[in-house]
């Protein structure tokens, strides 16, 4: 009888993987973080069904934080794998596509019945399309190095967290009754369009690789202050972060066009001839 749980090797290049070959813990740790984030996303869906929107939103926020950690842990431990990349994309679709769509529908979009459900579907599918495009672009060998500083469209965690801005405002006391549902619908639809758009947004992945020595202590203090504000005033902080991020989108697009123009000018300049030199 075949084994119920055959040995699995994340990146086996052999046609038949060797049995009983141990998998290093550095390959497992990042995937465990991804699975914990996925559990939070699924729990958020359950909490939304129970009408407990505040803990559901917190679960999505924590899942977003874990999503920002797992890739860095994988690169730090040299535990990146194709399996981990695919698992991360599937988890992102649930955490930042399906879960926020269902939370927003249960919060207020249900007031518009089928129209509200269609917008929730559009948001979830837009997130899936955005993740598929991101995975396809990773395999592009001709992508210039400077483009790694930008995402194409709004990234999945940012799209999910900014889409839930009406919920943050509701938790702070702003009334979102049936009268406000059309405005929430338009806002969620705009975020979905930004997610699948080609508008460049700041990546931040290449920032901070080398920090000047004089900036170390101020960065520590700023990090502690930001953490304290997020813990003490969670929804006020999320409102400020969401609005600040939306405000940076035009700045990122302008910076992208400027660097693209510089690259085009550099390529269009003819090389110097030996005689001129």
Automatic annotation (TrEMBL):
Record GO biological process: phospholipid biosynthetic process
Lineage of the species this protein comes from: Bacteria, Pseudomonadati, Pseudomonadota, Alphaproteobacteria, Hyphomicrobiales
Keyword Membrane attached: yes
UniProt cross-references to PANTHER family, sorted A to Z: CDP-DIACYLGLYCEROL--GLYCEROL-3-PHOSPHATE 3-PHOSPHATIDYLTRANSFERASE-RELATED (PTHR14269), CDP-DIACYLGLYCEROL--SERINE O-PHOSPHATIDYLTRANSFERASE (PTHR14269:SF61)
Matches recorded under Pfam families: CDP-OH_P_tran_2, CDP-OH_P_transf
Name the record gives this protein: Bifunctional IPC transferase and DIPP synthase
Main location: membrane
Membrane topology: Multi-pass membrane protein
Organism: Methylobacterium symbioticum
MF-aspect GO terms: phosphotransferase activity, for other substituted phosphate groups
Keyword Nuclease: no
A cellular component term, taken from the record's GO annotations: membrane
Location within or outside the cell: Membrane
Residue intervals of the CDP-alcohol phosphatidyltransferase C-terminal domain: 215-250
Keywords: Lipid biosynthesis, Lipid metabolism, Membrane, Phospholipid biosynthesis, Phospholipid metabolism, Transferase, Transmembrane, Transmembrane helix
Regions crossing the membrane: 28-49, 89-108, 114-132, 152-172, 184-203, 215-233, 239-256
Family: Belongs to the CDP-alcohol phosphatidyltransferase class-I family.
């Amino acid at each position: 009888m075949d084994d119920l749980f055959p040995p699995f090797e994340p990146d086996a290049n052999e046609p038949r993987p060797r049995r009983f070959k141990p998998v290093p813990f550095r390959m497992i740790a990042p995937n465990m973080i991804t699975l914990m984030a996925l559990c939070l996303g699924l729990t958020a869906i359950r909490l939304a069904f129970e009408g407990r929107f505040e803990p559901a939103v917190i679960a999505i926020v924590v899942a977003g934080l874990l999503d920002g950690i797992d890739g860095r842990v994988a690169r730090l431990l040299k535990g990146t794998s194709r399996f981990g990349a695919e698992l991360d994309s599937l988890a992102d679709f649930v955490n930042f596509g399906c879960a926020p769509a269902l939370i927003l529908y249960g919060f207020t979009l249900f007031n518009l019945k089928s129209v509200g459900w269609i917008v929730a579907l559009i948001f979830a599918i837009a997130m899936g399309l955005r993740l598929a495009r991101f995975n396809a672009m990773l395999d592009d060998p001709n992508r210039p190095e400077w483009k790694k500083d930008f995402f194409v469209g709004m990234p999945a965690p940012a799209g999910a967290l900014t889409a839930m801005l009406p919920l943050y405002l509701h938790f702070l006391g702003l009334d979102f009754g049936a009268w406000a549902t059309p405005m929430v619908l338009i806002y969620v639809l705009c975020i979905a369009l930004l997610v699948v758009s080609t508008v460049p947004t700041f990546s931040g992945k290449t920032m901070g690789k080398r920090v000047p020595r004089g900036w170390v202590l101020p960065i520590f203090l700023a990090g502690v202050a930001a953490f304290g504000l997020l813990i003490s005033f969670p929804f006020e902080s999320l409102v400020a972060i969401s609005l600040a991020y939306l405000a940076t989108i035009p700045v990122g697009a302008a910076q992208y066009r400027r660097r693209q123009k510089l690259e085009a000018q550099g390529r269009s300049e003819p090389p110097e001839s030996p005689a001129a030199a």
